[in-house]
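pls ignore typos typing on phone
NAP + seq
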Amino acid sequence: MRLLILGGTTEASALARRISGRADLEPVLSFAGRTRGLVAPPIPYRVGGFGGVSGLKTYLREQRIHAVIDATHPFAAQMSRHAAVACGDLAVPLARFTRPPWAARKGDRWVSVPDMDAAVRALGDRTRRVFLTIGGLQLGAFAAAPWHHYVVRTIEPPDAVARLPSHRLILARGPFGIDVEAGLMRDERIEVLVTKNSGGAATEAKLAAARMLGVEVVMIERPAAGDGPALDSVDAAVAWIDLHR
Ligand code: NAP
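k done
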C-alpha cells in the first residue's frame, strides 16, 4: 500500500516511527520544507510544496498513492484544504490525524479569538508586556500594535521580528517545564500570553504557568478541521491504514 503522510508535526513523525519496517506499506512522509536542519525520518520522505491542488493531484497519480493521512499542524489549513480537494477529486481515501485542542480549566483567564488579527486587537490600546509564542510566520501582524512590549519565542530567527519596535527575542525549542515558563513570565513581567490552540503536551506548560500567575491568555482557536475521519492517536491512525490496506 502506497501511503502519503502530510507531516511537519510530532504526530506525523510518531506515525512514521511506528510504521517503519512494515513490509506491507510503502509510505512517504511529506515536509513543507519550512525548517532548516530537518531530521531525516525512518521512512522515505520528500520536501517542498506540491504546487497547489493540481500539483498534489499529479503527485498522487504519478506516485500511485492509495491513501493519504493529513497529519499537518492544525493551523496548516491550506495544505489540509488542498488535500481534501485533491483526494475528493481522485477518490483517494483521506483521514486527518491531529492532536486534540487544549481546553480552558478552572482558574484560566482565556480570551478566545478566531485569528491573528483578532489576537492583536484583543491586546487593547494600553501598553502591555506580551509573550508571543505563535511561531515566526505571522509575527508581522503585531506591527499593527507597536505600543506593546513583545517577548517573542521562536525556534528559528524570524524576519518579521524587526517590525516590532519594542521586543526581546528568545530562540528556544520545547518542551518547556512549568518552572521555566513561570520563571520567564515572572522575570519578563508578562501580562498577557498569546498562543495558537495547537494542543499537545510539549508546549502546554506555558498555560499552566499562566494559570498559576493569573496571566491572561489570548487563545487563537483552530481554523476549520480538514476533511475525512478524525484520528487522534498513532493507534487510531494505524487502524485506519490497516482498514484501507
Ligand atoms: P499551509 O499554510 O497550510 O500550507 C502552505 C503551503 O505549504 C501548502 O499549500 C503547500 O504548498 C505547502 N505545504 C504545507 N504543508 C506541507 C507538507 N506537509 N508537505 C508538502 N507541502 C506542504 O501550511 P503552514 O501553516 O505554512 O505549515 C507548513 C508546515 O509546517 C506544515 O507541514 C505544518 O504541518 C508545519 N507546522 C505548521 C505550524 C503552524 O502553526 N501553521 C506549526 C508547526 C508545524 P503547495 O500548495 O505548493 O503544495
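Residues 110-220 form a domain with the Rossmann fold fold (CATH 3.40.50.720). The mean pLDDT is 96. more later
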